[in-house]
Amino acid sequence: MLLPLCLATACTGTTPSHNNVTLLAPRPFGYVIGDTIRHRLIIDTHNGVQLQRNSLPKLGPINYWLDLTDLTVNAQPRNGGFHYEIDLLYQVFYAPLEVKMLSIPSFNLPLAQGSNTATQTVPAWHFTVSPLRELAVRKDNGGDYMRPDTPAPFLDNTVLLQGLLLSTLTVLASAAYLAYLYGYVPGFPKRSLFKQTGKKLVKLTDAQIGEALSLFHQALNTLNGTPVFQAGLTEFYRQHPPYRLAEEPLATFFQMSNQHFFADGIANPIGALHALRQLCNLCLAIERGQR
């Protein structure tokens, strides 16, 4: 609601030049005890006219049923004057027995231009306040007048349930696949052989290359069920086709093993343990079906 106000109902000295004052107010009906009402005053002054803030309404009770709970003033220079926005927040504490008309009291806005002063009257604002319940209780058909609200209708949650079911199935399938990869499913081969070997290789140093080679030999023998020798790699690949992906590094492994265990005085190349760890990681990926 816009309510333009006329300027200067009372003045002292020469009246400051014309200013624009507008009251912005909400609906004037539908309030109950405890509700708040916000008003905004917009003032545009000219020729240096300023608002005297010290004379604005004070926070606190205005009367026994109305409080001013908040007041803020924003000012900006504009066109030789000022643009003011005054926000007032009132709270109603009146509990009527029937719909009743009330008024927020009027007050004066003090304005000054040098030594000249004037006041702008903000008129009273009328509104209605309603009771929370009727005083006389109706007893039509022997029932109570105060009844609960109609229950809200249920929302269709079919899509949500379908999404939840799909998400649950996805989680279960992922868990089953991970259990299969890690060898936790009964009846399926264990898939943690090279994982355990890899953990042991990480703890070894280059000086323990002999122990590292023996650990990897044990892993291959356990996988094959019988000892695996370099001459038997063809049969090993026939029984375990996925490991053909590691054919070249496995050949290098057996060369390092033969050199270490059977060639006296010939040291393994630098980085042999690192290469063996990489081979173990490759075999682990093959073991889990990731290659």
Automatic annotation (TrEMBL):
The residues that cross the membrane are 159-185
Q: Note the superkingdom of the native organism.
A: Bacteria
Q: Keywords on this record? A: Membrane, Transmembrane, Transmembrane helix
Is this entry keyworded Membrane?
yes
The name of this protein is Nonribosomal peptide synthetase MxaA
Per the UniProt entry, what species is this protein from, by scientific name?
A: Methylovulum psychrotolerans
Q: What is the lineage of its organism?
A: Bacteria, Pseudomonadati, Pseudomonadota, Gammaproteobacteria, Methylococcales
